[in-house]
């Protein structure tokens, strides 16, 4: 299932003195199975963009096509969009509102009008898949869960809809480092299982470790759209955009400046380790 974003612009408070252009003429295509990272400074339009893709907002100009069909045409089935494209807003734990975890996670599937047995099966599976124990948490109030668990429960609610495309807005912001790692491993697994992932994050290390493609926004414009290798190759451009490169790329660049010959296109930890072992040798005892 592909998504085409075609010349999309968006304005908040349109027609009022406070009107402001949040996105300007954005175009790009998302192919099935991609893992796309969205980067850019606060206020550049990341959240607006993903809400347009999920159909939560409607573009002022341009179109968003899901498998060739304009999602904002009157005859497009909104239900279909809600089934296929799942969006996890920033701090999704704030949206938990039901009395029990089970009720919360099953909210979406219940709205789809599925038979109760199917709703329960999906709910159980979604809860297990985010690493929570169904029997333990099903009757608990979401409020009694820890921060990381609440976020997992909120994401389970989206997964229970079985979307093909999962959009995440800063999903690891505010989590402790261990929970972050767990969480990213979990998102990677969903990707490996075939979901298309679109993820907004400030964490350039995590984004570049997982994304096959990065989109960089600046002041509502799509400035860069390329692989992490290509984007990190132009550090001057990134610094103009007030963005850095990944930590492994920083390390490679400083070692190269010191005359240590390593491939300049490394930007993830594993290839960095391999290159260092190749260069200096490992311990073979
Ligand atoms: N509900 C809103 N009303 C008015 N302006 C908004 C609203 N939400 C966002 N904006 C403005 O739109 C621009 C893009 O915001 P946003 O998409 O939230 O950026 P990001 O997610 O990259 O931080 C910013 O200038 C922001 O102030
Ligand atoms: Mg945002």
What would you call the structural class? Answer: alpha/beta
Q: Which radius of gyration do the C-alpha atoms yield?
A: 21 Å
Strand content: 15-25%
Strand order of the largest sheet: 6-7-8-3-9-10
The number of helical segments is: 13
**Principal-axis shape:** globular
Q: Gist?
A:
The chain contains 13 helices and ten strands. It has 285 residues and is of the alpha/beta class. Magnesium ion binds next to α1.
Core attributes:
binds magnesium ion, 13 helices, binds adenosine-5'-diphosphate, globular, 10 strands, single chain, alpha/beta, six-stranded mixed beta sheet, 285 residues, four-stranded antiparallel beta sheet
SSE blueprint:
Elements: E1 3-12, E2 20-30, E3 35-39, H1 46-53, E4 61-66, E5 69-70, H2 78-84, E6 85-88, H3 101-105, H4 107-111, H5 116-129, H6 134-137, H7 147-159, E7 165-169, H8 177-192, E8 196-200, H9 204-210, E9 213-218, E10 221-226, H10 228-233, H11 235-240, H12 247-257, H13 269-280
Helix pairs in contact: 5-7
Bound molecules: adenosine-5'-diphosphate (ADP) and magnesium ion.
């Amino acid at each position: 299932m592909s998504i085409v974003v075609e010349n999309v612009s968006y304005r908040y408070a349109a027609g009022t003195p406070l009107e402001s252009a949040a996105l300007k003429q954005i175009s790009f295509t998302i192919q099935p199975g991609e893992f796309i990272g969205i980067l850019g400074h606060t206020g550049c339009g990341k959240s607006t963009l993903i809400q347009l893709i999920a159909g939560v907002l409607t573009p002022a100009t341009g179109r968003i096509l899901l498998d060739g069909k304009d999602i904002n045409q009157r005859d497009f089935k909104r239900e279909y969009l809600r089934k296929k494209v799942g969006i996890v807003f920033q701090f999704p734990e704030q949206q938990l509102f039901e009395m029990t975890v089970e009720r919360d996670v099953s909210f979406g599937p219940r709205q789809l009008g599925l038979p109760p047995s199917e709703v329960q099966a999906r709910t159980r599976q979604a809860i297990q898949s985010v690493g929570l124990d169904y029997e333990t948490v099903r009757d608990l109030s979401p409020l009694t869960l820890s921060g990381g668990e609440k976020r997992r429960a909120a994401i389970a609610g989206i997964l229970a809809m079985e979307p093909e495309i999962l959009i995440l807005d800063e999903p690891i912001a505010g989590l402790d480092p261990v929970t972050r790692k767990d969480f990213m491993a979990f998102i990677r697994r969903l990707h490996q299982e075939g979901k298309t992932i679109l993820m907004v994050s400030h964490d350039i290390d995590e984004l570049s470790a997982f994304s096959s493609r990065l989109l960089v926004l600046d002041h509502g414009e799509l400035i860069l759209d390329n692989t992490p290798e290509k984007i990190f190759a132009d550090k001057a451009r990134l610094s103009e955009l007030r963005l850095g490169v990944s930590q492994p790329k920083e390390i490679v660049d400083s070692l190269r400046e010191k005359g240590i010959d390593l491939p300049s296109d490394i930007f993830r930890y594993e290839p960095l380790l391999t290159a260092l072992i190749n260069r200096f040798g490992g311990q073979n005892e």
